[in-house]
Amino acid sequence: MKISNTAPMLWFWRSFYQLRYLLPKRRPLFVLNVGAQKSGTSWLRATLKKQKICNLGLMKEYHIWDQSAPKEILGTEFNAVTSWIDEAQASLRERMLQDEDFYFVYFKNLISRECRITGDFTPSYSLLPEDELRQLTRKLVAVGFDVVVVLLLRDPVDRCWSAFRSHYRDLDQALPTD
Q1: Separation of alpha carbons 52 and 163, rounded Å
Q2: CA proximity to 126, closest of 32, 35, 31
Q3: Which residues contact 123 (CB under 8 A, 6 or more apart)?
């Protein structure tokens, strides 16, 4: 039985190709979660945050790139300091709004030898025009990230009921029986 000289070489390359999954990625990963509200974005963030290789920073929703989104759709003015952020978060956000490069510097500084994943989980980024979302992704790649854009969706009726229940829970009121 004659053995081809190429067989060992093919075996080597096939094994080498499979080993690449064991090697750490050279570029850190940026998770840009643009999923809908009440669709699992908090769960995904909490799950990632438990990982030792992940540092998502001070806030879940940074609301930096959605400033041009129609306020009628957002239903709130995100430039105003509101009850959903504390003083440290407000000053961080203000700095990012004043200097967009600081956004990239901030997330780059969250990366270390041990920490290879970071990200921004702002559902209203799904309202961004396609070209703005592409431009943001290009900027993240330019500063050294591999980017994963995540869009989580949920049945619209279930999502609305969940938002309705959450609204009353936040008001400390019982759901109306009618």
Answers
A1: 31
A2: 35
A3: 33, 34, 35, 36, 37, 39, 41, 61
Burial class (CB in 10 A: 0-12, 13-18, 19+), 145: buried
For 39-60, the pLDDT digits (tens) are 677 788 888 888 899 999 988 8
Tokens 């959450």 locate to 166
Evaluated on CA atoms 153, 156, 162, 167, the torsion sign reads positive
pTM of the model as a whole: 0.70
Q: Give the integer Cα–Cα distance in Å for 46 and 31.
A: 13
Rounded CA separation 100/96 (Å) = 5
